Structures are given as structure tokens and as C-alpha cells.
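It is worth pausing here to work through a concrete case rather than discussing structure prediction in the abstract. The textbook approach is simple: state the sequence, then state the predicted structure, then interpret. We follow exactly that order.
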Amino acid sequence: MKSTEGIIAELKQFSGSCVLYKHWLNILYTEGIKHFAETTQSFWLIDAIASHQTKKLLSNPYLQELQIWRLVVQEKSGVLICEWDTDKEVLRQKIPYTDFPLPNIKLYLAQKVLMLPSEY
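Step two, the predicted structure:
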């Protein structure tokens, strides 16, 4: 597997997407997200974010337009956090075990399209 610095450098190269991929839970994701998930073996993270797109979460009109997702990893466990604005947390999911290679990642879900910060 690539180094943390190598993964981060690669992800910064994505700045838009001509192709969108459809997730089976009715969100789309960019080429950058596909590369990220393949590189870090974390398609489970896309699944987790997509699985939270429920009527309850989407009853907040802000969250229909934009969601900020952060995964924070410490000592092989993690916390997945959804925010509707910086530091406005609306959801938190504990992940008891993960081998995710980065200490943290921030992703954006804008109008049902999951993307890297550099693609937003």
C-alpha cells in the first residue's frame, strides 16, 4: 500500500470529474472518490455514507444540498461524522475496527454526488 503522503498527494490531483459512478444506494461518486476507494480499499466508506441518506437525515434542507463527511481514525478504530456546516455535527457513527491508512479524510456530498475536497 502507498504511504499516507503518497495517497494525499494523489488525491489532490483530482479537480473535477467527467464521469460519475452510481452507487447501488442511489448516490453518485466522482472519479476521485473511485480512485480513493480503490487505493485505500475503502468502498465500505462510500457504503456507510450512502446508507445514512435516510428520510430522517434528509429532512434537514441543508443536508439535501451539502453534507460534510469526516472519518477520523485512531488506533485502528474510527468515527464517521456528518456535518451540515463546519462544526455543525448531525450524525456520528463509531467504527470499532478499521485498517484505513489515513488518520482522517474529509469528503463532500453535494446534491447526491460524493466528492473529494479538491473536486468540490
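Step three, interpretation. The mean pLDDT is 93. The first helix runs from residue 4 to 11.
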